[in-house]
Amino acid sequence: MEFRSSKQGLKEEYLDLIAHLFGSDDCSYWAYNRKYYRHFTWIVNDFFGGQYSIEYLGYSKAKVTSLKNTYEDPCLLSLGRETLIQQEGKNYISSSFSFITKAKSKKRKSYCINAAVFTQDADGKGRKDLTIFYRATEIPKKFGADLLFLRQIFEKYLPETVGKNIGEVRFLITLLYVVPIYYPLVYTMGIRVKKGKMADVCRYQLKRANDLSIIPKYGPTKRVFDFYRRWRNEKEKDE
User: Fold this and answer.
1) Number of domains forming the structure of the chain
2) Domain that holds residue 226
């Protein structure tokens, strides 16, 4: 599967990605309440220029800080930066940035974000691309925070002389999945559907938001439904 957005701006492209995945039944398989896609490619046209904020996606600053603590190793990332500086002016430039840093806990045995590779071709046009390799990720709960984190990392570690005007940022993800329990949150982000499987699941989950007996007392599921109920109550007041 490959997804290309013609829109400019990461904020809009991310919404397009969510709509594309939730609205499509062409997934690899369903397991329990998860919808899985294998070997996914997503190409972002304007990764560094799009308007994209923590507040928009509902994350806290602590989430991005947590990602930095897990994936940012200044020594490893500086090696990638130094390689690019040394290669400047050569016919072909290529350097990798590793995100496999500290030891993972027994609960989380491997890294979702593995590495990124920056390349520049000597084709007369000097095309610059950034390719990011994933083991797995969840859409939309986790991936949006990853995008915030990665953009900050590359703005920090890519040399200005070679990092400008990157033509394409390509995400290669071995396995990604969506969880229907988070559909109400996406629904409030501006995506509207009238028919199809996504609409049916949305309506089912929205009805469940009022049934407090099925919502856990703690955890991300509770936060999602709390968010939706607040949003809906405010909307009803406005109407």
Assistant:
1) 2
2) 193-238
Nearest to 210 by CA among 236, 188, 230, 180: 230
Token pair of 43, please?
A: 């190409």
Same-domain status, 96 and 22? yes
- What value does the CA radius of gyration of the chain take, rounded to a whole number of Å? 20
How far the first Cα of the chain sits from its last, in Å, is 41
How many C-beta neighbours within 10 Å does residue 221 have? Answer: 14
Q: How far is the C-alpha of 85 from the C-alpha of 82, rounded, in Å?
A: 5
Q: Which residues contact 150 (CB under 8 A, 6 or more apart)?
A: 113, 116, 132
- Looking at the structure, do residues 163 and 216 belong to the same domain, yes or no? no
- Token output for 28: 């690899």
Sort strands 34-44 and 2-4 into parallel, antiparallel or unpaired. parallel
State which amino acid sits at residue 36.
Y
pTM of this prediction? 0.79
Q: Tell me the pLDDT tens digit for each residue of 149-186.
A: 999 999 999 988 776 678 789 999 999 998 766 666 66
**Is residue 177 within 8 Å of 35, Cβ to Cβ?**
yes
